[in-house]
Amino acid sequence: MKSAFSLIAGTVLLAASPVIAQEADPIAAVDAQEERTERVAKQIWDWAELGYLELKSSGLLKTELKGEGFAIQEGVADIPTAFMAEWGEGGPVIGLLAEFDALPGINQSSSPTRDPVDGKHAGHACGHNLFGAGSLTAAIAIKNWLEATGTPGRVRLYGTPAEEGGSGKVYMARAGLFDDADFVIDWHPADRNSAASRKSLANRSAKFRFRGISAHAAGAPERGRSALDGVEAMNMMVNMMREHTSMDTRIHYVITEGGSAPNVIPDFAEVFYYLRHSDADEVRAMWPRLEAAAKGGAMGTGTKVDWEIIHGNNPTLPVESLQLMMTDKLRQLDPIEYSAEELAWAKTIQESFGEGAPALSQAQEVQPHEVITGYGSTDVGDVSRAVPTVSLAAAAWVPGTAAHSWQAVAASGHSYGTKGTQFAAKAMTLAAIELYTNPELRTKAKAEFVEARGEDYVYESLLGDRDPPLDYRK
Length: 474
Known about the structure:
The protein has two domains: 11-199 and 315-453, 3-Layer(aba) Sandwich (Aminopeptidase), CATH 3.40.630.10; 202-311, Alpha-Beta Plaits. The protein is built from 16 helices and 14 strands. The chain has helices at residues 11-15, 18-24, 26-31, 34-47, 55-67, 128-149, 163-166, 168-174, 227-241, 280-301, 320-332, 340-351, 380-384, 406-412, 415-437, 439-453; strands at residues 71-74, 83-89, 93-98, 103-104, 122-123, 153-159, 183-190, 197-199, 202-211, 250-257, 268-277, 304-313, 371-373, 389-395. Strands 1-2-6-3-7-14 form a six-stranded mixed sheet. α4 runs antiparallel to α6 (128-149), α9 crosses α10 (280-301) and α11 (320-332) crosses α15. It is globular, with a radius of gyration of 24 Å. The model is unreliable at 1-18 (pLDDT under 50).
């Protein structure tokens, strides 16, 4: 190979090699990497690093890619754990997203019964360890196929940190890192296999910080001004505001700091808010009301308040022709096969759900294609407005599992989760090959994307021009 971006020529000679023949078979190429998928997923699961702190997880993915001949750009978009890895030459350029951040405040062993791990303060309750490992496997399988067949094109893996409330991809989109890509492929662990055309909610968050005056709560209450009172006053007004918002609105908060002792009037308190809606313009319109509640809370309690925008995501923009193509690729695959031990493990997990859990066989089915609006948010939304993006969900969790649950942590650290991850990697690989070899689909999808986005569309992030909040999980 001439360089990290060169392709091997001479397909007649290559066809004679059993290794090359296997690499030209995309399904076999993914199957051959199952050990790598499980090893990488389990290691990232063990580390459970939080957003923008994923130095080891990001480093592991880069090491694996370098070993396969990918050229790496590190620290992109001014984020130490963000990277781009590329192999090939010419076009089209097809990117894959790879997440790897964990969630704070939840952990679990891979046991099918509740079993928190002592001293561990985070867990992969959204399966981003599987997300990163599966995209890694797909990127390498695609690279092997490009090399073996001599097909012009580049495969690019985007290492995207801090999806959970950090909007890592938004900073990458804002930096123009997706502008030269033709298509992007995205996946996520779930309890079913689906390529639904799913539109997410726009989302903006901020930490509101109140500052007051500390004093003895009993001995000199008149001298104090409680920052916690400011937080509670704001929360009361926002909770009354809920009655006067549209149905798609979602507002939630957590008090991240409220004082340390009841007899000390707190001079600092902080509340962390999320505001969501299906329309980004509605988020922008409602946001001043949230700020007004903060100002009112401070005014009424004799405190001061300031706030910091932490993250903001645009809604996803599904491209119907691409989602239908991905649904077709899912249906081409053999169903996921589980061992008797894995099925027994999954059955025990399901017992924790109570009555009404879906059948375990759901994990071996492909759901009918549908167009839906989900009520979560993701920074993939900003990617999907920069470049045509196709997404899928794969059954890496036991049917009935909710994201951000201990059951999701358990599956994400178990061989059950690896099986779904391999399934996703196969679908992504087949979809990439379709895009490399089907110019009619590429033309149709790009036209559909332009129409859905609008010809006069100008990208605007919901987090403004702030720098990445690299310390938001510290």
